[in-house]
Fold this sequence. Notes:
Layout: H1 2-9, H2 16-22, H3 24-41, H4 54-62, H5 73-78, E1 84-85, E2 92-93, H6 98-113, H7 117-120, H8 127-153, H9 156-163, E3 180-183, E4 186-189
Amino acid sequence: MKQLWYLLRFPFELSPAHASSTGLPAVLSLGLFGLLLMVFAASPVTTSSDSKWSLYTAMSFAQGHGGDLTEYLPRLEQEQFYSIEHPDGRPRSRYPIGTSLLVMPAVVVSSWLFPHFAEDMRAHNPVGTEHFLASVIGAAAGVVFFWVVLTQFQSLAIALASTFRPSFSPCAPRCGRRRPEVSGSTGRWS
């Protein structure tokens, strides 16, 4: 306990030679990643409205359809075409494709490991897969954020406090926290 207090109280300083020889940054990164992954995976938030079609769009790109969601029409109809637009006469997600491109490799691997994955997407929403991928991406982002803050402030306490603050959680916008909505040059609380 005394060593933990020392780490939290004093700035985090480690010489580059010592850090690389001990592997501390790698161990710390893996431990932090594992902890964040467990926290995010245990979160009750399963999906947000803007990522509803991310895996479908990723699968469409992986299959060479360029984001066309026509093959998922039964799912689109079940969801009453929520957040779907038809810019070229074909159904496409209204949201940007960045998330879909980020998870596309995982969707390809899932399809390879579970050949029925792509077929199951036509009948069911892959909420568990989406939740897991969001947890992995959130945990990886948390590790990067931790190291950026640590190198900027040279304090383990500040880095840990910043990484584990509630607003960093993927569910923060949907967990009842008040966020400012900016309208023009004045802000009001929602």
